[in-house]
């Protein structure tokens, strides 16, 4: 009997992983050209495929990687790159905090591993899936689904950035093909999946306006990231206070 339960649990886990993989396919189609773009830019700065793959594999956050490549020089200003990357990746503090309750049942080692593979896309898809499962009376967090989504995104991102370094010099300036619009398009798709009405979207709008205004005022710094994050949080708090 215990063996039958173990086989059923294994099949359920594999089914959830497959569900995550299938759900990630549309996002993966947008990740590939974005990774090629980063790889092509890295090739122009003289980075090897191994160097870039190591960076994208260990620092799974595309925004900070583009910033690092933009700041890359010979020799690189390591402290500046690290500080800017930390500033851009500061949003992961809030994303991780939002996901932590769903990971509370996992051992710390597994929870930290899950957070390591967390990115904007896997976080948004997992949170949206958790809301759907909660509405159906199921456990909110599906480890299998998250593994399928996050694992696929990580692997495809790392491989596409490495491929971009190799074929980037052959392709030339791939921004003329519109690849630089890929990132905004992916986030619009994620936003649609998390849409809950205009009231819930208000913090997103305020965050966008504040981030855009900050970037316009300080185009050479990454202050637009904390500015957008802080303004969105303040808007959420004000909305909750008003409705209380």
Keywords:
244 residues; mainly alpha; single chain; disordered N terminus; 2 domains; 11 helices
Topology:
Blueprint: H1 2-44, H2 49-58, H3 62-71, H4 78-88, H5 91-99, H6 108-116, H7 120-135, H8 143-171, H9 182-193, H10 198-217, H11 224-243
Helix pairs in contact: 1-3, 1-8, 1-9, 2-8, 3-4, 7-8, 7-9, 10-11
Compact description:
This protein has 244 residues and is mostly helical.
Question: In words, what does this structure look like?
Answer:
- This protein is mainly α and 244 residues long.
- It has 2 domains: 180 residues, no CATH class; 49 residues, no CATH class.
- Helix content is 77%, strand content 0%.
- It is built from 11 helices and no strands.
Approximate helicity band = over 70%
Care to count the β-strands? 0
Global outline: globular
Report the end-to-end length measured between terminal Cα atoms.
51 Å
Structural class category: mainly alpha
The main pleated sheet reads as: none
Which blocks of ≥5 consecutive residues have pLDDT under 50? 1-9
The residue-averaged pLDDT reads 81
Order of H and E elements: HHHHHHHHHHH
Strand content: under 5%
**Number of helical elements:** 11
Number of domains: 2
Rg calc: 19 Å
């Amino acid at each position: 009997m215990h063996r039958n339960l173990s086989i059923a649990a294994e099949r359920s886990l594999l089914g959830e992983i497959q569900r995550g993989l299938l759900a990630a396919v549309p996002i993966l189609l947008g990740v590939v050209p974005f990774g090629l773009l980063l790889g092509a830019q890295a090739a122009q700065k003289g980075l090897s495929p191994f160097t870039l793959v190591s960076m994208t594999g260990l620092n799974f956050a595309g925004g900070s990687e583009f910033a690092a490549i933009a700041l890359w020089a010979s020799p690189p200003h390591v402290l500046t790159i690290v500080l800017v990357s930390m500033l851009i990746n500061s949003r992961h503090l809030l994303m991780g905090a939002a996901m932590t309750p769903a990971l509370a049942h996992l051992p710390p080692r597994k929870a930290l591993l899950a957070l390591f593979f967390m990115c904007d896309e896997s976080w948004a898809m997992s949170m949206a899936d958790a809301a759907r499962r909660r509405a159906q009376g199921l456990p909110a967090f599906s480890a299998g689904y998250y593994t399928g989504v996050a694992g696929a995104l990580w692997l495809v991102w790392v491989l596409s950035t490495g491929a971009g370094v190799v074929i980037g010099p052959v392709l030339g300036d791939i921004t003329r093909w519109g690849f630089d619009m890929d990132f905004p398009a992916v986030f619009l798709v994620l936003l649609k999946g998390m849409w809950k009405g205009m009231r819930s979207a208000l913090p997103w709008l305020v965050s966008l306006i504040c981030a855009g205004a900050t970037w316009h005022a300080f185009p050479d710094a990454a202050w637009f990231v904390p500015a957008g994050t802080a303004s969105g949080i303040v808007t959420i708090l004000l909305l909750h206070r008003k409705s209380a």
